[in-house]
């Protein structure tokens, strides 16, 4: 489960609860990582648009995606720390994140 931090935690938790029976396992199936991430984001937006119909629906969906992005950032930070503790090099971490060793080091060291 994604860690959600900060003042937006209640809104993000409510949006996650609104997804109801939707599960990552149900989304993933045989999809590639890129495809299931897109499916998850699409489900977040669709659920939000259904929950908040009307003129402000797009703004509510933007808020939910901002919360999801913040949760992802928090979890990336935690995973980088965990990877370093487990012995991963900055080169390994940078490669997985699509950045150079130096960029990874400068961001998280």
General description of the model:
It is built from 6 helices and no strands. It is mostly helical and 109 residues long. The protein has one domain (9-108). Helix 3 (33-51) runs antiparallel to helix 4 (57-85) and helix 5 (90-97) packs across helix 6 (101-108). The two termini are 25 Å apart.
Summarize the structure.
This protein has 109 residues and is mostly helical. The chain is built from 6 helices and no strands.
Provide the descriptors you would attach to this structure in a database record.
109 residues, mainly alpha, 6 helices
Cα radius of gyration in angstroms = 16 Å
Number of domains: 1
Strand-residue fraction? Answer: under 5%
Backbone structural class: mainly alpha
Sheet with most strands: none
Mean pLDDT: 78
Gross geometry: elongated
Q: Would you list the SSEs in sequence order as H and E? A: HHHHHH
Poorly predicted residue ranges: 19-24
Helix run count: 6
Could you estimate the helical fraction of the residues in percent? Answer: over 70%
**Alpha-carbon distance between the termini?**
25 Å
Number of strands: 0
Topology:
Elements: H1 9-18, H2 24-28, H3 33-51, H4 57-85, H5 90-97, H6 101-108
Helix pairs in contact: 3-4, 5-6
């Amino acid at each position: 489960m994604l860690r959600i931090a900060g003042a937006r935690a209640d809104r993000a938790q409510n949006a996650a609860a609104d997804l109801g029976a939707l599960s990552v396992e149900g989304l993933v199936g045989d999809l590639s990582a890129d495809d299931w991430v897109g499916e998850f984001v699409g489900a977040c937006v669709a659920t939000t648009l259904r929950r908040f119909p009307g003129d402000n629906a797009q703004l509510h969906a933007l808020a939910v995606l901002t919360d999801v992005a913040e949760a992802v950032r928090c979890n990336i930070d935690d995973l980088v720390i965990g990877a370093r503790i487990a012995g991963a090099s900055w080169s390994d971490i940078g490669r997985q994140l699509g950045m150079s060793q130096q960029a990874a080091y400068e961001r998280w060291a």
